[in-house]
Design a protein that fits this description.
210 residues; alpha+beta; 6-stranded antiparallel β-sheet; 3-stranded antiparallel β-sheet; 9 strands; 24% helix; globular
Length: 210
Amino acid sequence: MDGRSETNGPKDAPAIEADDAVDQRLGETVRLLRQRAGLSIQDVANKTGLSNGMISQLERARAMPSIRTLRLLSIALDVPISYFFETSDPADVQRYIVRKNSRRLLRLTASGVVKEALTPADNGQLELYELTLNPGASSGTDFLQHTGEKAGYILSGSLRLWLDHQAHLLEAGDSFRFPSVVPHMFDNPTQQAARVIWVTTLRQTDSPAG
């Protein structure tokens, strides 16, 4: 999934423009965070295991990252993953409350995933999201491991959760929790969109809210 924007048919002009704007904003965010940290593209490649070419393409909005790629970048750049989200209208931001129409969004068009932040962008020890996975959507092509815990609840549709290379097909009403050090990834192998409440705790070195 990393670095490939595959489409199954033509998009209308507004959709293309929206996707381009998302890619451009993500690329600029990655570049600015890398420069702020005083890191070269090679430094980030060494920290993440991604290629120089992939990072360069991301920064130039020539590729769309997967959830796994963003998690690796957040760790390498020492920022919460929420840094990559679209910002909300400042007038709608509250310290402890997130209104339905004020959620921060992360649209990963190549991966088929929309991630909505349900927790405020203030200090905290966990993250709460609502994930929408289109048919065929996934977190990426490789397993991810890091410290912390993850948990979730399937609101609708189906989620295939891979834990330690074993697949578990979860349906609406099912739930899960696992240590994030367990190799994990997920996808939606069905022809119906899935909605999932997703909870993750921060690593000890993570900044709050990300």
